[in-house]
Design brief:
By secondary structure, the protein is α/β, with parallel strands linked by helices. The protein has helices at 7-29, 44-59, 75-86, 106-112, 124-132, 140-151, 171-180, 195-200, 245-249, 263-281; strands spanning 3-4, 34-40, 63-69, 93-96, 160-164, 184-188, 204-207, 225-228, 232-234, 238-240, 254-255. It starts with a strand and ends with a helix. The structure holds NADPH dihydro-nicotinamide-adenine-dinucleotide phosphate. NADPH dihydro-nicotinamide-adenine-dinucleotide phosphate binds at residues 141, 164-167, 169-171, 188-192, 195, 208-211, 229-232, 262-263, 266.
């Protein structure tokens, strides 16, 4: 039976280190890490995520500023707000909650966020840094996966890693991060042929598709490590991942559950990146 990777516990440990470092930064340099979260419109899931981010900031001792804008906000108004946050010394990280309403050009908005406050790691400058291996803000979900693998002592170097999904926020960046750590990486997507065979060859499987239990237990190589990023609601309440958890956990050596696996790491890495930004401002990293 696979070890079930406890993302909640790993995240809680990292968060307590973040809270401690935040306290020290306050005492030694008088700096409080500040995160601005911008929400446009009334999307219920986005409201929940923004609430969770604010709560996490408060628990870590951060200064948190929420900007809730109506769905009718124009692109120019949103861009003006981001420019003012770029210039605000109390703010070290800016997060624009996605998706944005259809009348707003997401790319233009994300490119307005100063790369030095882009704690989501979505600005093309930071994406480019990730590509060439230069230190930068790394997107929170894939960065959380790497931290998680490191914390539980999974060796990445020399492993065959198969990433299913090629989105800009999960699939592509995790593939680059694994490559950086010397894995041999295969990226699969909706046009990939023989997906089952590809997954079967993997020592590390990253599933980021968004299709409930699409990756079957008998696709997993015995002893593989399975990281399930997918969050899919089935029926009224139940959340499942992209991997058939019960069957896969009989074959894998370690596997993340859904919920309680990758999810808690994402907000944790947002805090981590914001603290890093504040430390950079203080000239200590
Ligand atoms: P996207 O919808 O942006 O990307 C999905 C990817 O899956 C695409 O690259 C798509 O391929 C690929 N895909 C779709 N169908 C298949 C198929 N049949 N076979 C192989 N590949 C397929 O999703 P995200 O990357 O944003 O998110 C993926 C999942 O992770 C979602 O469930 C999301 O909710 C979850 N998530 C969880 C987070 C967390 O914190 N736990 C954070 C972010 C996401 P193609 O490019 O060809 O269309």
């Amino acid at each position: 039976m696979a070890t079930v990777i406890n993302g909640k516990e790993i995240a809680a440990n990292i968060r307590s280190e973040i809270a401690k470092e935040t306290e020290d930064l306050k005492k030694e340099k008088g700096i409080i890490p500040g995160l601005a979260v911008v929400l446009v419109g009334e999307d219920p899931a986005s409201k929940v995520y923004v609430g969770m981010k604010e709560k996490a900031c408060i628990e870590s001792g951060f200064h948190s500023k929420e900007h809730k804008l109506s769905a009718e906000t124009s692109e120019e108004e949103l861009i003006a707000l981001i420019k003012s946050l770029n210039a605000d010394d109390k703010i070290h990280g800016i997060l624009v909650q996605l998706p944005l309403p259809d009348h707003i050009n997401e790319t233009r908005v994300l490119e307005t966020v100063s790369p030095s406050k882009d704690v989501d790691g979505f600005h093309p400058y930071n994406v480019g840094c990730l590509l060439v291996g230069k230190p930068s803000f790394q997107p929170c979900t894939p960065y959380g996966i790497i931290k998680m693998l490191e914390q539980i002592g999974i060796e990445i170097e020399g492993k065959e890693a198969v990433v299913v999904g090629r989105s800009n926020i999960v699939g592509k960046p995790i593939a680059l991060m694994l490559l950086q750590k010397n894995a041999t990486v295969t990226v699969c997507h909706s046009r990939t042929k023989n997906l089952k065979e590809k997954v079967k060859s993997a020592d590390i499987v990253i599933a980021a598709v968004g299709k409930p239990e699409m990756i079957k237990g008998d696709w997993i190589k015995p002893g593989a490590v399975v990281i399930d990023v997918g969050v899919n609601r089935v029926g009224d309440k139940k959340l499942v991942g992209d991997v058939e958890f019960e069957a896969a956990s009989k074959v894998a050596s370690a596997i993340t559950p859904v919920p309680g696996g990758v999810g808690p790491m994402t907000i944790t890495m947002l805090l981590y990146n914001t603290l890093y930004s504040a430390k950079q401002k203080a000239g200590i990293c």
